[in-house]
What we know:
single chain, alpha/beta, Rossmann fold, 2 domains, 4-stranded mixed sheet, 15 strands, 38% helix, binds NADPH dihydro-nicotinamide-adenine-dinucleotide phosphate, binds guanosine-5'-diphosphate-rhamnose, NAD(P)-bd_dom
Amino acid sequence: MKKAFITGVTGQDGAYLAQLLLEKGYEVHGGVRRISHPELPRLEKLGVADKVHLHEFDLSDPYNIIRAVNAVQPDEFYNLAAQSFVGASWDLPIYTADVDAMGVVRILDALRTNSPKTRFYQASTSEMFGLVQEVPQLETTRLYPRSPYGVAKVYGHYITMNYRESFGMHASSGILFNHESPLRGKEFVTRKITLGLAALAHGGTDPIELGNMDARRDWGFAGDYVEGMWRMLQQDEADDYVLATNTTTTIRDFFTYAAEAMWMDLDWRGEGENETAIDRKTGKLVMRVNPKFYRPAEVDLLIGDPTKAKKKLGWTATVDIRQLAEMMAKSDYDALA
Ligand code: NDP
Ligand code: GDR
């Protein structure tokens, strides 16, 4: 039986990956940081909470990483843990760098000295592309991160490549474009929208306040993307791969698709800071822009080219943006019914 260790197992991707690896017959270990109210809502929702072996684990502490590596000696190690909210990274730049950049080399070095045959996956991100240099973006696109989060992830990306080249480790990075699901964190824009719309559809009156409505993202379904992570570690050679859908959508269009899934008919008015959306059926104000959600620097356009992953891993995204918006809207609507 193969053993896998997943950091960030309590997060969105960690939960889907744990479920996938358990289905494939792995013994699954997960790193959990100490919190005052230990709860595992995502793992519980997928019905796998009692099947994952949990280990105390914090990316900021090298010694607990070494202990976890020594205790498990995993065949595969997936580093999904991170301070993953781009918006918060301007408020927590040092912490974000410590966890998202230094945390990666802490793991790589613990593996190199204690379990060198372990295959390693690093959660790299389309945020590394940042300012648009090339459309669509692929593995060779120049990196130009636009947030402390993006900058920290660039370090994680290159140190993974460096340990592969320096020590011959089987270390791969998945450059994943945005991927969402009903388990998405509530502060990310897609989930903020579907949660807010669900409350409005059930009689609520609070409009959803958002920032930049013109940003474009390449959004896929998280369940597809964890399959891609696993496929990367099954290759004979470690490498880096973009996972994306190759379509891009504005925040406004995602909002419209999710609203339509809740039987709303939107009337968009104004622009910039004055933009609003009203549901023609009820006359309710459902969205207004609040500049407090603008970011100090924005990533305007992300669209990924997953040709390499398709060719080498046989991987493609299976859920399109309308299906994704509908899936998330339905889940949040039903949860309030
Ligand atoms: P989540 O925010 O849902 O999960 C993050 C996980 O990291 C949680 O389990 C969290 O634990 C854990 N964590 C945070 N800080 C620490 C720390 N100091 N030590 C140990 N664990 C910590 O993220 P996602 O599942 O969405 O993303 C997974 C990874 O993929 C992240 O690295 C993210 O940056 C990256 N990524 C995500 C994309 C996406 O669209 N979802 C796209 C590209 C990359 P806790 O539950 O205690 O908070
Ligand atoms: P992102 O996701 O920054 O792409 O990072 P997020 O959903 O936070 O933002 C997407 C875009 O929406 C705009 N936006 C808002 N965002 C939030 N969160 N809240 C708002 O009110 C709002 N209004 C507009 C943002 O400005 C942005 O342009 C996600 C994370 O999962 C990262 O960890 C991961 O690396 C990248 O995706 C790929």
